[in-house]
Amino acid sequence: MTKNILSSLPAWRQLADHAKTLALPENHLKFLLKESGRLKKFSKKGAGLWLDFSRQRLDDKALHLLLELAEDRNIMGRFEQMMGGDHVNVTEDRAALHTACRSFSNKPVLNDGKDVMPEIRRIRNDIKSFSDDLIAGKITGPSGMPFRDVVVIGIGGSYLGAEFATTALQHQADKGIRMHFLSNVDIDNFGAIASKIVPETTLWIVISKTYTTAETTANTLQAVKYITSHGLDPKNHMVTVTSKGSPGDDPSNPVLKTFHMFDYIGGRYSVTSAVGGVPLSLYLGYDRFEAFLKGAEEMDIHAATTPAQENLPLLAALISVWNINFLEYPAQGLIPYSSPLSKLAAHVQQLSMESNGKSVTLDGEPVRVSCGSIIFGEPGTNAQHSFFQLAHQGRPFPIDFIGVLNPCYDQYNGLSQGVTNHQELWANLMAQAQALAVGKEEDPSPAKRFSGNRPSSTLVMDDLSPKNIGRLLAFYEARTVFEAFIWGINPFDQYGVELGKVMAGDIRKTMAEKNKNPDYRFDNRDEIQKFYLEMLFG
Amino acid sequence: MTKNILSSLPAWRQLADHAKTLALPENHLKFLLKESGRLKKFSKKGAGLWLDFSRQRLDDKALHLLLELAEDRNIMGRFEQMMGGDHVNVTEDRAALHTACRSFSNKPVLNDGKDVMPEIRRIRNDIKSFSDDLIAGKITGPSGMPFRDVVVIGIGGSYLGAEFATTALQHQADKGIRMHFLSNVDIDNFGAIASKIVPETTLWIVISKTYTTAETTANTLQAVKYITSHGLDPKNHMVTVTSKGSPGDDPSNPVLKTFHMFDYIGGRYSVTSAVGGVPLSLYLGYDRFEAFLKGAEEMDIHAATTPAQENLPLLAALISVWNINFLEYPAQGLIPYSSPLSKLAAHVQQLSMESNGKSVTLDGEPVRVSCGSIIFGEPGTNAQHSFFQLAHQGRPFPIDFIGVLNPCYDQYNGLSQGVTNHQELWANLMAQAQALAVGKEEDPSPAKRFSGNRPSSTLVMDDLSPKNIGRLLAFYEARTVFEAFIWGINPFDQYGVELGKVMAGDIRKTMAEKNKNPDYRFDNRDEIQKFYLEMLFG
Known about the structure:
The structure is a homodimer.
Chain A: H1 10-22, H2 29-32, H3 38-41, E1 43-46, E2 49-52, H4 60-72, H5 75-83, H6 98-101, E3 110-111, E4 114-115, H7 117-135, E5 149-153, H8 160-168, E6 178-182, H9 187-194, E7 202-207, H10 214-229, E8 238-243, E9 257-261, H11 274-284, H12 286-305, H13 312-326, E10 331-337, H14 344-356, E11 374-376, H15 388-393, E12 399-404, H16 421-438, E13 456-461, H17 466-487, H18 498-516, H19 527-537
Parallel strand pairs in A: 5-6, 5-7, 7-8, 8-9, 10-11, 10-12, 12-13
Antiparallel strand pairs in A: 1-2, 2-13, 3-4
Helix pairs in contact in A: 1-4, 4-13, 5-17, 7-11, 8-11, 8-14, 11-12, 12-17, 13-17, 14-17
């Protein structure tokens, strides 16, 4: 299928033509929005979320052509293949079965002919019993005092998703656990955490698929030194989440408990595996983690089975393609009007940019169209008082707004200017989408004119329940892979991070030489490296 | 001066031509970097920082033309005018005198003929005595117990800079104060903080120039309700940072202390005024705040007096212009290899995008060239495991790397693979800049090829001392205004945020009506607004 060059598909060529029509002044969003019934037509509900894309620079024809493109690229078929265990990660010749992590159906999911569900269920049970016992005080360190601090050692896909979900659900963190994320190899990340924890009642969770990630290895070593320097034994204070048989799953190096992860689940898609499951179950209790999984499962089923024109993540993916390839926006803002979603942008930034910031198609040919987009964001209303000046009057970029109908802390309901804080928040969410779209072209002062025509979507959820956070997570996962399926790229590999690793390894060796031999000179390095090395070694 | 249309200046036209030359394959960065002496030529030291721009896609001619452009636009002259109190904020007819906040010279700084330095010195003294007394336990609430939690209520420019500086300097926070930022009107921001503080020992700092910002007003009201609901009196638990005579500086509404701010200091440039001064002095002690000011002053003097070709923020501004206008990059990454600088990108995002995301020149003419850039970032090495896949193999964007030679927590110096964590961090910093620049075009697998030619600068500082954080802050402030002076725009107003505020105010009124009268219907709203309002009111 990817043999068909994307940009020569009839739908693609018609979309390119049609984008020119939509760029005409008479198709400014302020006019498109006058169409009666537009909201009804350009908004869809599914899996507990509601997506309003009425303020995208779209019309019926554009949407129709985008759906034709989705059909031509068989993206729902590819989603089904993904969920069914096909080796959709072609470069690494692997399945991508993150959806199996949250399957509660009785159907087998075959990976190379073997049903993965039994091991997935076993790990869920492991997580449940471990977290139940730890929370109940049955699992403790040798002091007998319950664990109070949990430090998660992991980076990238072993970190961002869990951080997003713990931040989003902190209002339900009633298990007496303080969560810390030790991701960066920067010793100041370690030092800041070490200054806050009590060694006797701290549990360290080391998350690394291969157990060879340089950052995680270095931080684990610091943790072991820290634990032993306090007269404690790492085997009583550490758990690992890693592949079967990795150095983190080695009986000669015992830990409190090891949870397995599998090569068919990529890092940035792994929040619903043990990677997110162990920290989230300790922080929130297993039941809430299971509700989170069930929300994600519901979205997976929606994405897999809902006709394209009603399919939320699929429509969102088509809108991305429209904005990136035809309207040529290089970036996308992600603005949740909800403080607890403050880490969503960082998670989706990884999910999307690492998945789809690619240069070759599945066939190894150069991608001939733009793919991937810069994703960034902060919560509203904060963002309004930060970079929205540029969003309104500078370089335009499309925005995903997110609204949450019911806040976590509705007991604080005092009125300011006649409205609650939550209503004020919503007034702003509504106003921003509108102001960006319609603008205000007439004002005596040129500095006070707004060109408008700046597109956005709004995704609405009922509240920040674990189930809704699971739905939201799976929505962005599905959107990401649908985009990739349109572009014909592999959203599951990340070879682009390798070159820097190799070069860092080479520099590390030189540094290690110097540590061993203070007389070592950096004469075999190029001019720039030599300068930096001498500066660092003083 | 701005009457000269920027894009018709000879230097501009020559730069546009020269960019085509630099785009030729033989001018790929991997070849430019082979030039001996390049680092020496394309790196500069000043005000305690070192800027390496050897990996920008620049050559002598480009730099020469950029410096000619700086000369043509008289940007150093404009910087001097700014520091001297000229009304460089033309649309609001005001001076922009943030540099006066950190002046320790005896020279007067005239604003409309009046020396502002006496009032600036008075406020510094106010901050010093208040923070000294509070830290010493001489100022307490009625319980007599020292204040332990400080909640800063403020948004945008009354928030991001202080958050950046407190995060960067948290390793020196030895005054027993926990700092909380209540910025978002989202009640979940309030609720999360309320769940962590002890009312009797909490001090609330309300920061608002006009004291009419909707978010801050609403949050202050919640704070007052919270304080009184615990049987306490707000006048014993609140301080204000606001303009003389504002509703926050009203003797009939007494508070513990009021600190003044002035209309000649814009929000996003106000960290070195009482806006940052009060929180930072409580968190770190006044002396460290003063060291922070002195670092900023040093950078101001460097920016104002150093010849253009040696002037760090000026060179950085020229590089921005080169990258944005001639190489046409729409975004810039800001990647500090230092965890405590995790909030730098959010601060500079506001500083830069709110200042320079403009559509009109000082003369009110449309800006004919791109101005402003999307700024985003996360600390390295985290960013490597997140969005650097796209940085290496997807859509290219220039990056500012930041390196810190000495970490805060150097007592944790265990070796992993022969190097300390800090050395590992530096190996990665060095490797990323190099990998992005040179790439790797030969590999049997197309997915493992890197096109390279991706530019970056690296800014190096000795350590995270208050002085260096002040220098860094002022570096980005000066870079921002130098950019604006090139583009001929006003970096001190923000009319782009007004339209959304007006529309939100209109929606708020409707909501307030509905709160008063449950039978109120939203029939006078458009279709979309009506739908959202009905959804919210259930």
